[in-house]
Design brief:
The chain has one domain. It is 78% helix and 0% strand. It has nine helices and no strands. The radius of gyration is 17 Å and the shape is globular.
């Protein structure tokens, strides 16, 4: 457990340093601290004893790549979007492997969320409408598959972690798009990062994991 606490401490300190860099407009501090919390989650999941651990770790690794690219924006916004799209696809595979029940009714609120988000953002997206639409579809499918695990064979507390984490991830992504395409607002940047790190932590915590000393 000491290892877990150390990783948590490192992640929290890096997150605090990033938020300070965001408020102080300190680019290099942001660049070097932004990926650290998610890297700590990857280390926390190690040594990836089964397929579920490996899938979640892969999605986290793709998210780290996306984090770095988005800090280089605007030229690297699309590569960052592609990296996060890959992460969403891996999360979809992971959640579907946990529970293959269709649960079509749970797809409805996810689809409504995606449609509303796209209609809200579309007037400001310009030539990236198609790319953002594809990403929104992926995040909605990820939401659906996370919610579909609740009430199934996956441990219910862990399934709830995944569902809440996926919801926080979706909200964070919409705020990323708002700040990128509509209006950059510092308070929303802080909120979206807190939502994002919370989402990744909850999803990482949704694996069936044996504690380590």
């Amino acid at each position: 457990m000491r290892r877990d606490r150390l990783l948590l401490l490192i992640g929290l300190l890096a997150a605090a340093a990033y938020l300070y860099g965001l408020s102080a407009d300190h680019y290099m501090l942001r660049l070097f601290t932004k990926p650290v919390p998610v890297l700590c989650l990857i280390a926390w999941l190690a040594p990836f004893p089964d397929a579920d651990h490996r899938r979640i770790a892969m999605a986290l690794a793709l998210s780290v790549i996306g984090d770095i690219f988005l800090e280089f924006e605007p030229p690297f916004f699309v590569p960052g979007l592609v990296a996060f799209l890959g992460a969403q696809v891996v999360y979809i595979v992971a959640f579907t492997a946990r529970d293959r029940r269709p649960q079509w009714l749970r797809a409805v609120p996810a689809a409504l969320f995606g449609a509303g988000a796209y209609l809200w953002l579309a007037p400001s997206l310009g030539g990236l409408r198609g790319a953002v639409a594809a990403y929104i579809v992926a995040i909605c499918v990820m939401l659906w598959r996370a919610w579909a695990t609740v009430g199934g064979t996956h441990p219910q507390r862990l399934a709830a972690f995944a569902a809440v984490g996926a919801t926080a991830f979706a909200l964070s992504d919409i705020l990323v798009a708002y700040n990128r395409f509509v209006a950059p607002v510092l308070a929303l940047k802080v909120l979206l990062m807190v939502l994002y790190w919370t989402a990744q932590w909850l999803i990482a915590a949704s694996v069936v994991r044996q504690s380590k000393d």
